[in-house]
Design brief:
heterodimer, A: 7-stranded mixed β-sheet, globular, B: alpha/beta, 9-stranded mixed β-sheet, 7 helices
């Protein structure tokens, strides 16, 4: 696997493919289309490099995001914002953020000291934006609350039986499952409800928890260290002008800021770029998980049953798989994860999920039931190879915003919580025990946290499985991956001197439409499979009207100019909420224009990850907007 | 102008953006684990009280009291009202299902204790859409009422309100004390800023029970069944007027 710059990689891939016999049979038209595609790819890559070199501007302005991304935003000098000072500022009220907050308060209570902690969360309430399968390990939860069961934590369904199946269009062939996928001792939960419970515990311990509060900007000191964050200006209209209800955002300053935004955090991505927390050529890779929660016929319900699937509906070139978890109360959580390194621009992860449900194994289970919730979220797949530096002056990265998910186990919650606990331990030591970070002193550089991580179970786990996901990147697709993974997980367990690398970022993996055929997806039947807008209505997502569109385009013309002709407009397919459309342009008959239905957005971050032009920038909308997930 | 005390009623309801569904027992809507927030019309009521204070000054509008009747979690809604600008809050705590008449009785008792000059309520709650509490309260207190208000002002102790009625807009005036219920176009509620949310935690919140107030909150209505609306059937195309008549007579049986 090579780590050359994107341009040479593109050319060498085209050359490599030229050697395969099937290429000679393609028409001249297809080959010339590809050449055009390669040339435009080269242009795109240059554009991408230029974008990556942009710095976050330090001048403040009325908009709620970076001015550099939208030249039309008015740059106005503004009055200084109100500030609130804390010891620790935590951005994100998910498993990692709340675990860190709880741990800090527990340490302070034990030693009879004080530490001021604030958690801000963009969801309308804690848990509103939390979505997962989920089958979680309880180790870190027990570390925080040994008596979690007595305290009423909503972990009510122990995992009882594990199954692994390979699906063809009509059959389900049982497979031996690798040892990591053994779920004894784990619980099938709604992660949203577990996070809600953690939020209540954090408040009881005295953490200031502010839901419906979006962090839209990082505040840096003059020396480049992180001072804290600023929340959104509220009451700004579509044209970035203040409305009557304009309420300026606030700055929250902390001796340390813990970024816990989850996969592909909107602030974290800028932070990693600006502070160069990843080496040149390193990047994160992702998957998109789409799920539904169903209430099924009790006769078909087996509480505690876990099924993982591979194969149908995904082809051998596309990484991913399905899951079916039987929860309590006749509820079943099921979904499909699609690796976002897929190549076919005609692939629609949403429609693949609908096809998954129409497989007899799944449709038999769902017939006679009713669907309760729908949702989607990107997840981290890069593993150890993609981790950025975890600490920097004034802050750290915890949870999936760094990327601790164990991909073969498809579990990341326990690692996220563990990382929150480790960060809390180091932060407490630095601030309370050692008295660092006082006004006027040096910013805190929490190297102890990264050290603790390297000695932790998280590192051991991720190191053991580091070669499994990348083994799927070869031309053998999932077959190569299954062969290597079987060997690695059963025998080798990661004890090799080499580490496979991810060849390209996900957005560079998409191939031009000319190289693929459109996929003929079946129409939804309205009982088991649904159209995308019906599904979106089940997320409870809403965005206040007349606010700036939170999906920003660096170049307003690229989508129609390049993505549509070269990739056939993949945005209309990879978004699981129907945000992006290419519609007829009334002003220019015969042409299309790119429409962003930002109100549908469910904050999954896939567009920011998968756009081949890397033109779409996901920024945070007004706090409280976005999905209202229930029991997900 | 003499000083006013304003009482605002707020209710914790299922958030307007949530897609509700009927619970498995068919007794009502599923509310467990579902996001709740302040009734939008009540937000407008709180906002109007605060705007009256901003317009006439703290000497005239002496105090804004927020009241909510409901379970323990109703306190969150009261904290939101405090964060928007109310001065103190009263929580009538009960886990029982409350009908508009019961709420009106509870509020009338609180009015008797706190003696406000103006009571502002939302015109209706978005969960039951009853549109009764304000009117019943005015009846119990024998006070004038200005419902569906899209404009409210007080001039020299006289309430002047513009009401949204079917025929257009109706301007009414009345003496104080009076009951006002708010309609959508009255104002756009403000965002509660973070410092105000923090300050709200320190503002006084008193909890009482219906028994303390001596009110019987027994339900007088029993809900028999709640179901989802019938699924929309596909339309049928007809080729001629005769076919239409035939279908209307024989299939739909409406002729």
């Amino acid at each position: 696997m090579y780590r050359s710059t994107p341009t040479t990689t593109t050319l060498s891939r085209v050359q490599a493919m030229a050697r395969t016999p099937s290429l000679l049979q393609r028409s001249a038209a297809t080959i010339s289309a590809r050449t055009i595609a390669t040339a435009s790819r080269a242009k795109l890559n240059t554009h991408r490099r230029q974008q990556h070199q942009q710095q976050l501007p330090l001048v403040r302005h009325f908009s709620v995001s970076h001015a550099a991304n939208n030249a039309e935003e008015t740059l106005v000098e503004r009055e200084p914002r109100e500030t609130m000072e804390y010891d620790i500022v935590i951005v994100g009220g998910g498993p990692a953020g709340l675990s860190a907050a709880i741990r800090l308060k527990q340490l302070a209570a034990k030693e009879d000291t004080e530490i001021n902690v604030v958690v801000i969360e963009k969801g309308g309430e804690i848990g509103a934006h939390t979505l997962s399968g989920a089958c979680i390990e309880v180790g870190p939860l027990e570390e925080l609350f040994p008596d979690w069961k007595e305290q009423g934590a909503p972990l009510n369904q122990p995992a009882l039986e594990d199954h692994m199946k390979y699906l063809t269009e009509n059959h389900a062939i049982p497979l031996p499952h690798p040892p990591q996928m053994n779920n004894t001792g784990n619980y099938i939960v709604s992660l949203s409800n577990v996070v809600k419970w953690l939020g209540e515990k954090a408040e009881e311990l005295g953490v200031d928890v502010f839901p419906a509060t979006a962090a839209s900007e990082i505040i840096y000191n003059g020396d480049g260290s992180v001072r804290g964050i600023a929340t959104n200006d509220a009451g700004v209209d579509k044209e970035f002008k203040p409305k009557a209800s304009f309420t300026p955002g606030m700055e929250l300053h902390g001796k340390l800021t813990l970024f816990a935004e989850g996969c592909h955090g909107s602030l974290t991505k800028g932070l990693i770029r600006k502070l160069k927390l990843r080496d040149e050529g390193k990047f994160q890779t992702y998957g998109l998980g789409i799920k539904e929660l169903w209430e099924v016929d009790p006769a078909k319900h087996t509480p505690g049953k876990i099924i993982h699937t591979m194969g149908y509906p995904l082809d051998y070139q596309t990484y991913g798989g399905g899951f079916i978890y039987h929860m309590e109360d006749n509820k079943v959580s099921l979904g499909l994860v699609v690796g976002l390194d897929y190549k076919n621009p005609y692939l629609s992860p949403y429609k693949e999920f609908q096809r998954f449900k129409s497989h007899p194994l799944v449709s038999d289970l769902l017939k006679g039931g009713r669907v309760l919730s729908y949702g989607a979220r990107a997840l981290v797949e890069g593993g150890l190879q993609s981790l950025p530096k975890l600490f920097f002056p004034g802050g750290v990265l915890i949870g999936d915003t760094a990327g601790f998910m164990n991909v073969p186990k498809i579990k990341g919650t326990h690692n996220a919580m563990q990382s929150g606990i480790l960060a809390a331990d180091s932060a407490y030591k630095a601030i309370v025990t050692e008295g660092l970070g006082e006004e006027g002193s040096e910013p805190i550089v929490l190297s102890g946290y990264e050290e603790a991580f390297r000695n932790s179970n998280i590192y051991k786990e991720l190191h053991e499985v580091r070669n499994i996901r990348p083994s799927f990147h070869t031309g053998l697709g999932i077959w190569g991956g299954i062969m290597w993974s079987g060997l690695d997980s059963m025998l080798i367990k990661g004890r090799v001197p080499f580490t496979f690398q991810h060849p390209h970022p996900d957005h560079a993996m998409m191939e031009p439409a000319a190289m693929h055929k459109p996929i003929d997806y079946p129409k939804p039947d309205g009982e088991i499979t649904f159209d995308i807008l019906t599904s979106v209505s089940r997320t409870g997502t809403d965005h206040a009207e007349n606010q700036p569109v939170h999906l920003r385009l660096a170049d307003k013309t690229i989508e129609v100019r390049e993505n549509l002709p070269v990739y056939d407009g993949p945005e209309q397919r990879f978004c699981p909420a129907g945000v992006y459309e290419y519609v007829d342009d009334e002003a220019k008959p015969g042409h299309k224009r790119f429409q962003i239905n930002s109100q549908n957005c469910i904050h999954c971050k896939t567009c920011d990850i998968k756009d081949p032009a890397q033109n779409i920038n996901w920024t945070v909308p007004e706090g409280g907007n976005g999905p209202q997930y229930v029991d997900t | 102008m003499s000083s006013l005390r304003i009482l605002v009623g707020v209710k914790r309801v299922v958030d307007s953006a949530v897609k509700v569904r009927v619970n498995s027992a068919q007794t009502g809507v599923e509310t467990a684990n579902v996001k709740h927030s302040m009734n939008p019309f009540d937000e407008i009521a709180v906002e109007e009280a605060i705007r009256l204070r901003e317009k006439h000054g703290k000497d005239v509008v002496q105090e804004i009291i927020a009241v909510s009747c409901g379970p323990a979690k109703a306190q969150e809604t009261l904290r939101t009202a405090l964060a928007m600008g109310a001065d103190r809050a009263i929580h009538v705590k009960t886990d029982d299902n409350l009908e508009p008449l019961s709420v009106a009785k509870l509020l009338s008792k609180i009015v008797g204790e706190e003696k406000p000059s103006l009571v502002i309520l939302g015109k209706q709650a978005i969960d039951d859409d009853s549109n009764q509490t304000g009117q019943m309260l005015a009846g119990l207190l024998n006070w004038p009422q200005a419902t569906f208000a899209s404009k409210v002002d007080i001039k020299d102790g006289v309430l002047e309100a513009v009401r949204e009625v079917d025929g257009g807009l109706e301007t009414v005036s009345s003496s104080l004390p009076a009951v006002v219920t708010t309609d959508l176009r009255l104002n756009e509620p403000r965002y509660a800023s973070l410092p105000n949310i923090m300050k709200a935690k320190k503002k006084p919140l008193k909890t009482v029970s219906p028994a303390d107030l001596g009110v019987d909150i027994r339900s007088r209505l029993q809900t028999l069944k709640v179901t989802e609306p019938a699924k929309r059937q596909g339309g049928k195309m007809v080729a001629s007027v005769d076919e239409l008549l035939d279908k209307l007579r024989n299939e739909a049986k409406v002729l």
